[in-house]
């Protein structure tokens, strides 16, 4: 596809007005997690799960990091340890601590010598301004094959930026959504590494991959909160838009898409919950912007990948129900297996499991992968949960950025090859 065509579309749907109208945020004190610990708790019954997850209603003391149908990872404030231990006894489960002091981990997240990495080198995590500046550098360095786009504006008025890489007309399209959950920093680190690889690699296979697809990559979708996780609270999950009905702030953006919204307990209607779906679908400007943009381009997009962490999973539709499966579920599993096998063959030997979101985890409605599949006719659609499975969780040390990114590249290469084999990579826009 020609770059000017995309630019015309972008100008049509997302006029930027140059002027910055960022709302002023009060200088908030940086949230600290001194002596907060994270535990792995395996349970056998849904009653046990329910009883443990109840603890997360005590916001200041407990935060859920991960939850699937056999175990959860729970962060516990030091002052809440007695309550936590009592609950473990009542529920009759044991907990294994894997992070003793979350603040200590946060303080050492960028262990690599950060001064030596003044330019992008993926040895540390970059903030939004650094990522934006780097995108500009890449746009300037590769003007013939890249174009910048803006999905729209965030709640606080920031541009949500993306990059299109297109080497030739007629390519099938791959859309990568990253950092919808802002605390999952490994996602934008991986997305930017991928952009760099697609533009600069001399490897024959990577060149083939880069040049035979159109890549729409949004490294940071949840821009406001990405800034917030850098400046104020490293572990904030939701958006930062206040609620009209509660003092609790924010919506889970990955429950906010208009596709089986709020069905089957796949999200919460309580603004204080981490999976609050919002007052209505698309209440969050970031998700509305993503929806408007993808809706217009959907005939050019064959594959939707939404980057998340952590758990090492590929999750296909459906999220809203574990009772039904998409009509091409067997294909989706075959493609996911290709990703998983390819990653496993790397020297790191990392294991990715796969299945449908609701099947492998629990009902989760209104997520990107379901919406793209159900509403946008993008039949190859996954959530990818990156490293790890519960050693560092969200605070994955920067030393793991490159290994994780290499796995993602190899995985995507296999995923697209398998999709092509199954007939999903025909350019959609040659249809009338
Ligand atoms: C964390 O725990 C250590 C060891 O118990 C203690 O010395 C320290 O004061 C605690 N830090 C904070 C900020 O509470
Ligand atoms: C607690 O769980 C263990 C197995 O995990 C079981 O053997 C034991 O009977 C349980 N105790 C109670 C009081 O349910
Ligand atoms: Zn996530």
Automatic annotation (TrEMBL):
<keyword id="KW-0862">Zinc</keyword>
<keyword id="KW-0378">Hydrolase</keyword>
<dbReference type="GO" id="GO:0004181">
    <property type="term" value="F:metallocarboxypeptidase activity"/>
</dbReference>
<dbReference type="Pfam" id="PF02244">
    <property type="entry name" value="Propep_M14"/>
</dbReference>
<dbReference type="InterPro" id="IPR003146">
    <property type="entry name" value="M14A_act_pep"/>
</dbReference>
<dbReference type="GO" id="GO:0006508">
    <property type="term" value="P:proteolysis"/>
</dbReference>
<comment type="similarity">
    <text>Belongs to the peptidase M14 family.</text>
</comment>
<keyword id="KW-0121">Carboxypeptidase</keyword>
<protein>
    <submittedName>
        <fullName>Zinc carboxypeptidase</fullName>
    </submittedName>
</protein>
<keyword id="KW-0732">Signal</keyword>
<comment type="function">
    <text>Involved in the digestion of the blood meal.</text>
</comment>
<keyword id="KW-1015">Disulfide bond</keyword>
<dbReference type="GO" id="GO:0008270">
    <property type="term" value="F:zinc ion binding"/>
</dbReference>
<dbReference type="GO" id="GO:0005615">
    <property type="term" value="C:extracellular space"/>
</dbReference>
<dbReference type="InterPro" id="IPR000834">
    <property type="entry name" value="Peptidase_M14"/>
</dbReference>
<feature type="domain" description="Peptidase M14">
    <location>
        <begin position="124"/>
        <end position="419"/>
    </location>
</feature>
<keyword id="KW-0482">Metalloprotease</keyword>
<keyword id="KW-0645">Protease</keyword>
<dbReference type="Pfam" id="PF00246">
    <property type="entry name" value="Peptidase_M14"/>
</dbReference>
<dbReference type="InterPro" id="IPR057246">
    <property type="entry name" value="CARBOXYPEPT_ZN_1"/>
</dbReference>
<feature type="active site" description="Proton donor/acceptor">
    <location>
        <position position="385"/>
    </location>
</feature>
<feature type="signal peptide">
    <location>
        <begin position="1"/>
        <end position="18"/>
    </location>
</feature>
<keyword id="KW-0479">Metal-binding</keyword>
<keyword id="KW-0964">Secreted</keyword>
<dbReference type="InterPro" id="IPR036990">
    <property type="entry name" value="M14A-like_propep"/>
</dbReference>
């Amino acid at each position: 596809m020609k770059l000017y065509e995309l630019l015309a579309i972008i100008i049509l749907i997302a006029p930027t007005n140059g002027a910055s109208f960022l709302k002023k945020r009060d200088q908030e004190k940086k949230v600290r997690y001194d002596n907060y610990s994270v535990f792995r708790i395996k349970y056998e019954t849904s009653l046990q799960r329910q009883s443990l997850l109840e603890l997360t209603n005590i916001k200041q003391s407990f935060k859920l990091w991960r939850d699937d149908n056999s175990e959860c990872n729970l962060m516990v404030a030091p002052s809440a340890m007695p309550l936590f231990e009592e609950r473990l006894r009542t529920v009759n489960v044991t907990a294994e601590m894997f992070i003793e002091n979350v603040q200590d981990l946060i303080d050492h997240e960028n262990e690599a010598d950060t001064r030596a990495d003044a330019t992008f080198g993926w040895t540390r995590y970059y903030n939004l301004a650094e990522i934006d500046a780097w995108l500009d550098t890449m746009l300037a360095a590769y003007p013939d094959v890249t174009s910048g786009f803006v999905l729209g504006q965030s709640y606080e008025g920031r541009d949500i930026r993306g990059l299109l890489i297109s080497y030739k007309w007629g390519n099938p399209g791959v859309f990568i959504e990253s950092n919808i959950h802002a605390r999952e920093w490994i996602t934008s680190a991986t997305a930017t590494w991928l952009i760099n690889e697609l533009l600069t690699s001399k490897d024959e296979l990577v060149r083939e991959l880069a040049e035979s697809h159109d890549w729409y990559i949004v490294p940071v979708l949840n821009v406001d909160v990405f800034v917030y996780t850098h400046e104020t609270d490293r572990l904030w999950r939701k958006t930062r838009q206040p609620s009209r009905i509660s003092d609790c702030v924010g919506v889970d953006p990955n429950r906010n898409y208009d596709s089986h919204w709020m069905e089957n307990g796949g999200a919460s209607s309580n603004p204080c919950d981490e999976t609050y779906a919002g007052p209505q679908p698309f209440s969050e400007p970031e998700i509305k912007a993503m929806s408007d943009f993808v809706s217009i381009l959907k005939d050019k997009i064959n594959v939707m990948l939404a980057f998340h962490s952590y758990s090492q999973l590929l999750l296909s539709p459906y999220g809203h129900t574990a009772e039904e499966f998409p009509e091409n579920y067997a294909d989706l599993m075959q493609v996911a297996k290709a990703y998983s096998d390819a990653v496993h063959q790397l020297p790191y030997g990392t294991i990715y499991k796969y299945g449908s979101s609701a099947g492998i985890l629990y009902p989760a409605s209104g997520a990107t992968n379901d919406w793209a599949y159900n509403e946008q006719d993008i039949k190859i659609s996954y959530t990818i949960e990156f490293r790890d499975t519960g050693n560092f969780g969200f605070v994955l040390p920067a030393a793991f950025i490159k290994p994780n990114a290499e796995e993602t590249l190899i995985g995507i290469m296999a995923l697209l090859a398998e999709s092509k084999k199954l007939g999903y990579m025909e350019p959609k826009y040659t249809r009338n």
